[in-house]
Amino acid sequence: MEFSNKKIERYSRQIVLKKIGITGQKKLLKSSVLIVGAGGLGSPIAIYLTALGIGKIGIIDNDKVEISNLARQVIFSTNDIGKEKSTVAIKKLKKINPQIKLKSFKKTS
Length: 109
Hints:
The chain has 109 residues and is of the alpha/beta class. It has 2 domains: 1-27, no CATH class; 31-105, Ubiquitin-activating enzyme E1, inactive adenylation domain, subdomain 1 (FAD/NAD(P)-binding domain). 39% of the residues lie in helices and 14% in strands. The chain has 5 helices and 3 strands, in the order αααβαβαβ. The protein has helices spanning 5-10, 12-15, 21-30, 42-52, 85-96, and strands spanning 32-36, 56-60, 101-105. The chain has a 3-stranded parallel sheet. α4 (42-52) packs parallel to α5 (85-96). 24% of the residues are buried.
């Protein structure tokens, strides 16, 4: 995997860490994570993993954003009330890091 100047600049704060470096960042970019629930824990985790450069992130959540979510689910805003959490989260995460692959999933019973 080639590392462009933009990738080096984006991930420079991680790359300079001895325990991560270019090799570790490449591993992160090749990694996949599935987040089950975009709530109080899932939404900030999704933001951080997206910013870190995890290559593929999936989010499963069948709930819709409610006003009571806004105090602790930091990825959502007032304009998101009534919308599907996983879909809204993916749209916002793409704005944070358009270089990674993001996908919304629905829970099946």
